[in-house]
Design brief:
By secondary structure, the protein is mainly β. The protein folds into two domains: 13-242, Trypsin-like serine proteases (Thrombin, subunit H), CATH 2.40.10; 253-494, Thrombin, subunit H (Beta Barrel). Helix content is 4%, strand content 40%. It has helices at residues 54-57, 234-242, 346-351, and strands spanning 13-14, 22-27, 40-46, 49-52, 66-67, 72-76, 86-95, 111-115, 125-126, 136-141, 160-167, 180-183, 200-205, 208-218, 225-229, 258-261, 264-270, 279-284, 299-312, 318-331, 337-345, 357-359, 369-374, 377-392, 395-403, 419-421, 427-435, 448-450, 456-457, 463-467, 475-476, 480-481. The strands form four sheets. Strands 10-11-12-15-14-13 form a six-stranded antiparallel beta barrel. The longest helix is centred in the middle third of the chain and has 9 residues, at 234-242. The protein starts with 12 loop residues before the first strand and ends in a 13-residue tail after the last strand.
C-alpha cells in the first residue's frame, strides 16, 4: 500500500491556545496547493530539531533520505500558519525510511529536520512507552477540513485540535505494521486529515504533553488514522539529535536540465540552426500531452497549450521556469514525441542558467551507450537492439530502442519522456517511452516487437525508447515546424 497524505483534523475545533512545540512545515518546492503554503505538521524536540513524517521530507526532488533542502521553513509556536511564533529555515533532513525500501515506509514514517538557527520554543518529549488501546490522546494540525481543494475555506490557517483515543490496531484496516498507532474515532468522524501528516498524537506525561506518534496516512475508509509509533524509534531520534550517530548525506545524482511534467518528464532542446532569440522548445512523449491523445496514424499540429515547465538544476530544484504556450506537434505513430514552444527564448533561459540540450540528427544504433535522465536519477543504459516495429495499444513505432536488461536500465511509470543522452551529456539521442509491464502482447503498457515475418515477441520487463533524429529536419528558423519539407519524415496530420 502506497503512503498517501492522511485526511486533516476533522471532528475537532480551533485550539484555544498555542502550543510552543507545534509547528507548520512550509516548503517552497514543491509548494503546497494553498495560500499559506502549509504542507505538514512538525513538533519541536530540541532548539534546532523538529520531528515530522518521512513522506513530508520526501518532497525533495530526488527522494533522498538524507540531504540539504532548499526553500524549506517551519513556523512554530503559533496558532496561525501565516503569522506569529517563530520562523526558522530547515538546513538538513534525515528520513528514517523511504518508498524504495522494502516497498513501504509503514511503521517507519519519521523524519528529523535540523534548523539553521535555534528557536526559543519549549520542546516536547517523546513518550516513554507505546500507548495502549483506549489511552486518551490529543491530535492537532492545519489539515483540510473538507475535500474540495479548490475551496480556500477547506484550508484552515488556525490550528485545530481534538481529544480522542488510541484504538486497537485492528480498527485501522489499512494497517501494515506493528509499529503503527490507530488513532481517532472508530467511524473516522474524529481523525487527522490531508495535510495533517507529520502532526502529533500527544499523551499526558505527568503535567506535560509527550509525543507518542506522528500522522502517516489514512487507516481505511471511515476509520481512524494511522500514526507512526515514535516511541519505537526513540534511539534513532536521540542518536541524531545528540550527534552520536548521524547518517551521511545521500549522493545526489546530477539531474540538470530535466523537466518534471505531471506524470511524465521532458527536456528543453535546440537544433544546430537554433538562434538565441528563437522561442525555446521542449520535448516529451506524444502520450504525455494534456487532453486527447493523437489517434493512431495521426498527429496533433499547432494546438494551444498552457503547462508549467520547471527546468531543474543539478539537484532537481527549479533553475528556471517557463510555460509551454503552444503544442507544435505530437504523434504516437512512427515515434512517440511531442514538441512544445515555450514563452522564453534560448537567450532568456541561458541568462537564468538553465541547461538546454542539443537535439541529435543521427539515429541510435545497437550498442550505443545511453543515459536516461529520469525522475531524480540517472540510469546507465545501452541500446541492445533497434526494433523495426514496436506495437502497443493500437499504435506502432518504428526503429525503437530496446534497452539492454543487463545494464539494470529499468525506467518506471512516471519517467515517460525522459531524455536518453549521448556520452557527451549534452546531446539528446532519444526519449524513453514505454516498458512491458506484465508480459502481455501489444496491449496498453505491454509493447511487443513485430518481426519482418510477422512474428510477435513480448518479454515482461523490457524497456524501450524512441528515436528523435528526424525532428531536426522538420524545424525551420524561429523554432517553426514545417512538415512539408522533403527531408521531414514525421507523421502528417490526418
Amino acid at each position: 500500500m502506497a503512503v498517501s497524505p492522511a485526511q486533516a483534523i476533522v471532528g475537532g475545533s480551533e485550539s484555544p491556545q498555542a502550543y510552543s512545540f507545534m509547528g507548520s512545515f512550509q516548503p517552497s518546492f514543491p509548494a503546497p496547493p494553498r495560500r499559506d503554503k502549509h504542507g505538514c505538521g512538525v513538533v519541536v524536540l530540541a532548539p534546532q530539531w523538529v520531528l515530522t513524517a518521512s513522506h513530508c521530507a520526501g518532497k525533495n526532488p530526488t527522494g533522498a533520505k538524507v540531504g540539504v533542502p532548499r526553500g524549506w521553513k517551519v513556523r512554530v509556536g503559533s496558532l496561525d500558519t501565516t503569522s506569529g511564533g517563530e520562523v526558522a529555515e530547515v538546513d538538513h533532513y534525515y528520513r528514517l525510511s523511504n518508498y524504495q525500501e522494502e516497498g513501504s515506509i509503514w511503521g517507519k514514517d519519521l523524519a528529523l529536520m535540523h534548523l539553521r538557527t535555534p528557536v526559543r520554543a519549549k520542546p516536547v518529549r517523546i513518550a516513554s512507552t507505546t500507548p495502549q488501546a483506549k489511552t486518551p490522546v490529543r491530535i492537532m494540525g492545519w489539515g483540510m477540513t473538507c475535500d474540495n481543494s479548490d475551496d480556500p475555506g477547506c484550508f484552515p490557517t488556525k490550528l485545530r485540535e481534538a481529544d480522542t483515543v488510541v484504538q486497537p490496531i485492528s480498527k485501522c484496516p489499512e494497517s501494515a505494521d506493528s509499529g503503527e498507532l490507530c488513532v481517532g474515532s472508530r467511524d473516522g468522524t474524529v481523525a487527522a486529515s490531508n495535510m495533517d501528516s507529520g502532526g502529533p498524537a500527544l499523551v499526558r506525561d505527568g503535567d506535560q504533553w509527550a509525543v507518542a506518534g506522528v500522522v502517516t496516512g489514512p487507516g481505511g475508509d471511515k476509520a481512524p488514522t494511522l500514526y507512526t509509533d515514535a516511541t519505537k524509534h526513540a534511539d534513532w531520534i536521540n542518536d541524531i539529535i545528540t550527534g552520536a550517530k548521524v547518517p551521511p548525506d545521500d549522493r545526489i545524482p546530477n539531474v540538470e536540465g530535466s523537466v518534471a511534467l505531471e506524470g511524465c518528464m521532458g527536456s528543453v532542446v535546440r537544433t544546430a540552426s537554433s538562434r538565441p532569440n528563437d522561442p525555446a522548445l521542449m520535448l516529451t512523449n506524444g502520450h504525455c500531452v494534456q487532453g486527447k491523445l493523437p489517434a493512431p496514424g495521426t498527429a496533433l499540429v499547432d494546438r494551444p497549450a498552457d503547462r508549467e515547465v520547471p527546468i531543474a538544476d543539478r539537484q532537481g530544484y527549479p533553475q528556471a521556469t517557463a510555460r509551454a504556450k503552444r503544442l507544435m506537434y505530437a504523434t504516437m505513430t512512427g515515434t512517440d514525441i511531442a514538441l512544445y514552444r515555450l514563452d522564453k527564448t534560448y537567450a532568456q533561459l541561458k541568462a537564468k542558467g538553465a541547461k538546454v540540450f542539443q537535439l541529435t540528427s543521427t539515429p541510435v544504433r545497437a550498442g550505443d551507450p545511453l543515459t536516461a535522465l529520469t525522475t531524480g536519477e540517472r540510469l546507465k543504459c545501452s541500446a541492445e537492439a533497434v526494433v523495426k516495429h514496436l506495437r502497443e495499444g493500437g499504435y506502432q513505432q518504428n526503429d525503437s530502442i530496446r534497452y539492454a536488461t543487463s545494464d539494470g536500465c529499468d525506467p518506471y511509470h512516471g519517467t515517460s519522456g525522459s531524455a536518453l543522452l549521448a556520452p557527451d551529456d549534452t546531446t539528446i539521442v532519444g526519449i524513453h517511452n514505454t516498458h512491458n509491464e506484465a508480459g502481455g502482447k501489444c496491449t496498453d503498457d505491454n509493447p511487443c516487437e513485430v518481426g519482418a515475418d510477422g512474428a510477435v515477441t513480448s518479454v515482461k520487463g523490457r524497456g524501450y525508447g524512441q528515436q528523435v533524429h528526424m525532428i531536426a529536419a522538420c524545424l525551420t528558423k524561429g523554432s517553426k515546424l514545417d512538415l512539408s519539407r522533403k527531408s521531414c519524415n514525421l507523421t502528417r496530420k490526418k
